[in-house]
Structure formats: structure tokens, C-alpha cells
Amino acid sequence: MKPEKQERIINAAMKEFVKSGYEKASTNEMVKDAQISKGSLFNYFSNKKDLYFFLIQNAVNIIEQIYVEIDMNERDIFERISQVGFIKLNIQKKYPLVFDFLKSLLEEDAQDVKSDINLLLANIQKNGFKRIYENIDWSKLREDIEPEKAMNILNWTMTGFAELQIAKITSFEDIGIGLFNEWDSYKEILKRCFYKNGEE
Amino acid sequence: MKPEKQERIINAAMKEFVKSGYEKASTNEMVKDAQISKGSLFNYFSNKKDLYFFLIQNAVNIIEQIYVEIDMNERDIFERISQVGFIKLNIQKKYPLVFDFLKSLLEEDAQDVKSDINLLLANIQKNGFKRIYENIDWSKLREDIEPEKAMNILNWTMTGFAELQIAKITSFEDIGIGLFNEWDSYKEILKRCFYKNGEE
DNA sequence: AAAACATTGACCAAAGTGGTCATTTTTTGT
DNA sequence: ACAAAAAATGACCACTTTGGTCAATGTTTT
């Protein structure tokens, strides 16, 4: 199967699952959106559940990819977080809904899939979040700021910034140099706030 | 009709509309959740659309209430934002989903209601966001920080903080003094960052 | 005890569901 | 050029759910 077609199916299916949840998600809508026939979809996947778990596995693999792309030698928290942000942005060019899809899994409560979801997500959450902050040099932080709170503010700022940018653009393709500069200025504001005077 | 019952219906209906969007939202689910009969629902509202627009109007009124409760004499941006945050928190005690519902309206694309939604929301967005920042004293800000960016960081931090707290608690009732103190410490971090030395 | 009002849920036609499969279209190997 | 194999189609199915109705039943008020 052509990769472009596969992407179309994956994105259409994720869109529908995100919008409607597992049970109400309509395979009819998916095939319409992906521009394939109903028969095709059920040739590739034996049933709706099968498709759903394929998407989950696919999403989990994509998340894993983030960790192999992170440069663990970068010990500065701002640079590390920026890295993660831009890796995510790149992923969203191909699969715009993959993070929404993963988020939707946490809220899914269809009896039919709930337990399997929890099983598949247990690993990603336990190991996941800690790994992003591995080998970070916390010593640059001012002593009177709790690292956890600084980290939260930084994270919320990046998430908010990203959402704002995504709302502004129409396509993930037209992401320019302006975005880097804009994010840099936010970074500078918080750096001056969190770091001891003179550092970095 | 007893106000407690009315609340039950409103919250059940909002829950379903948020979860499923206008078209897929099931009136059957609503009556089940609100513990009333199908007949009752359609006595109060002539049809689904009618119910939907009632909820929108209700939500808009609630938002309006925020603005009358804000103390416009408080010229400090941090205190102003904190006020808004706590007013919102109080609203959510009664209507936990009202903000999610309003947000869901922006993503709604059912042909049947789209144009009317845009009409009803036009005002709230145009006038709304500006009003929160009316009469703020920006002179305390360090000159090398763009007010818009400081405001964004502050807003994102408050939103992130609120989401974190809401995820932690099971009921809006058990909001204690600890929350105030925790938010205060975030406020202090950002104040020291954004304000000229020695101010406030 | 009668009149007025509120609430119920079985019922309906219509639409939508996940999934099938005989048939057609496209690709492949020679 | 042609046949065999593979891929794609969409009408079709039995079944569920939909928004909405309304005669019957319960509850209040007069």
C-alpha cells in the first residue's frame, strides 16, 4: 500500500476516534474522509477494534521516536524542552492528530477497549515523562525557585505557545523562521527569571 | 421547576454535547444522566436545537457574570488574573462543564447550528478578552519585557495550574486553602521575574 | 372531588451502525 | 497482448439508535 494512502487512512481514522470516541466513531465517516471504500478498510483491518489498536500502537511508536531523537548531551533545560517542542511539531506535520488521539485514550471509557488501553499506556506514562528530564543540569537554577515549579511554568508556556501557533497557521507546512525567533524571546524572558544572574 | 433539577439537566446536556458534538449528542443519554424522562425533556424544550441554544445562552450569561464580579479597581495584573481564575473556579462548582462547552462551540461544524453559533459568540470574543485587562497598571512591568508576552506566560501558567488542580481533585467542593498558597508561590516567581526590582 | 399541571415510557419512522461479498478494476508476470 | 492474481468497490444486511410524540398516569392546587 502506498504510504500516502496509509497516512490518509490513519489520519482520517484518528480524526474520527478523537471526535467521537471509540464507540460512536463511524467507520463510514472514516472511509469517506480517507477517500477509500468500505470494503478496503475492512480488508486492511479485520474490524473496528483491530483498527483502533493499530492506531494506538502506531501512536505509541511515534512517541517512542521522540526519545531517540532527543540529544541527551544537551543539559540545559530550556534547550531540552525546545528540542522536544520542535520534534513534536515535526511529528504533527505528518500526523496532526496523534497527540490529541493519545490524549483521547485517557478519557475513553468504552468497556470494550478500556482495559487494553490502560495496559498499553501504562509503560509510556510511567517511564515517559521522567526521561525527558534525564541528565538536566539543575544547578543553573536560582536556589529560591523550586525546580518543579519552574519546569511547570516552562512547560505550560511552551504548550500554550504551541497551541497559539497551531491556531494561527492553516497548514503545518508553513512554519517559518519567525516561529523560532518568537519562541526564543519567550525563552529569554523565562531564562532571565529562572537562572542565577550571569549564567548562560 | 426545582433549581437542583434544572442544574442536573443543564449539566447532563452540556456533558453530552461536549462529548459528542451537536449532531451526535444523544437526547436519550441526557435524560438517562439527568434522571428524567424523555417526555419531560421535550416538554421543557421543543426540540434538540432549542435545548442547544438555551445552553449557549446560559453559558454566555455565566461568562457575562465574570465581568461584573471583577474588581476593576484592582490595577495589579497578577491580582486581576487571580481574581478571574477564582471566579471561574467558583462557576465550575455549579457548572463543571460550562467552559468546555463554550470551547466546544468553536469546534462545532454541524451545518444546522454553525452560523447561529458564530453569531452568538461574535460579541463575547470581540469585547470579552480586552475587558479583563481594562485599567491595568502596566508601569510596574520591566521595560524590557513585552506586556503581551508577559500576559501570555501568566495566562498559560494559570490555565496550566488550574488544569493540574482540577485533574487532582475529585469534586469541586474540596478546594482548600492549600490551593491558594500553591498558586501564590507561582505568582511570586513570575512577579519577581516580570516586575522592576523592588516594586510590589 | 374536580380541574390543572407535571411526568412518564412504550412507541414510531427514519437514519445510521459495523461488517460482508459478488463483482469490477488495476497490477503483475510472461 | 493476455491471463491470472491482487486490490478496490459499494449495494446490501440485520441490527441499533435516533429525535420526537402522545395517551396514560401521578401529583398539586383550587
Explain the overall architecture.
Chain A has helices at 3-24, 27-34, 38-44, 48-69, 77-94, 98-107, 111-132, 147-168, 177-194. Chain A is an all-alpha fold and 200 residues long. In chain A, helix 1 (3-24) packs parallel to helix 6 and helix 8 (147-168) runs antiparallel to helix 9. The interface between A and B is medium-sized, with 24 and 24 residues. Chain A binds a DNA duplex (30 and 30 nucleotides) through residues 1, 26-28, 36-40, 42-43, 47-48. Chains A, B: It holds the Pfam family TetR_N. Chains A, B: Residues 26-45 bind DNA. Chains A, B: This is TetR family transcriptional regulator.
For the report, how would you describe the main beta sheet of chain A?
Answer: none
Q: What string gives the helices and strands of chain A in order?
A: HHHHHHHHH
Q: Helical element count of chain A?
A: 9
Structural class of chain A: mainly alpha
Distance between the termini of chain A: 50 Å
CATH class annotation of chain A: Mainly Alpha
What's the CATH architecture name of chain A?
Answer: Orthogonal Bundle
Which word captures the global form of chain A? Answer: elongated
Gyration radius from CA atoms of chain A, angstroms: 20 Å
The greatest interface here is:
A-B, 24 and 24 residues
- Helical coverage of chain A, percent range: over 70%
CATH fold name of chain A: Tetracycline Repressor, domain 2
On the 0 to 100 scale, the average pLDDT of chain A is 91
- Name given to the CATH homologous superfamily of chain A: Tetracycline Repressor, domain 2
State the oligomer. homodimer
